[in-house]
């Protein structure tokens, strides 16, 4: 099954948001508080899981 509604955990499965992933990792490395907000089902959880 190609599409799964479950959050993605691997960077290989998380595509079309490379810039957001780079930004998240950069801010995370600075030790700052990060608030991830966005529309429902946009990929917020997948972004966090893929970055960590």
What does this structure look like?
Helices cover 38% and strands 0% of the residues. It contains 2 helices and no strands. The chain is mainly alpha-helical. It has one domain.
Descriptive keywords:
52 residues
List the helices and strands and how they pair.
Layout: H1 18-29, H2 44-51
Radius of gyration equals 11 Å
Number of helices: 2
Distance between the termini: 25 Å
**What proportion strand?**
under 5%
Total beta strands: 0
Q: Domains counted in the coordinates: how many?
A: 1
Q: Helix fraction?
A: 25-40%
In terms of per-residue confidence, which ranges show pLDDT below 50 for 5 or more consecutive residues? none
Element order: H for helix, E for strand? HH
Indicate the mean pLDDT: 84
Shape estimate: globular
Quickly give the structural class: mainly alpha
Largest sheet: none
């Amino acid at each position: 099954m190609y599409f799964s509604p479950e959050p993605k955990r691997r960077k290989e499965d998380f595509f079309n948001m490379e810039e957001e992933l780079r930004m998240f990792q950069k801010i995370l490395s600075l030790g700052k508080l990060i608030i991830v907000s966005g529309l429902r089902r946009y990929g917020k959880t997948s972004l966090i899981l893929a970055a960590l």
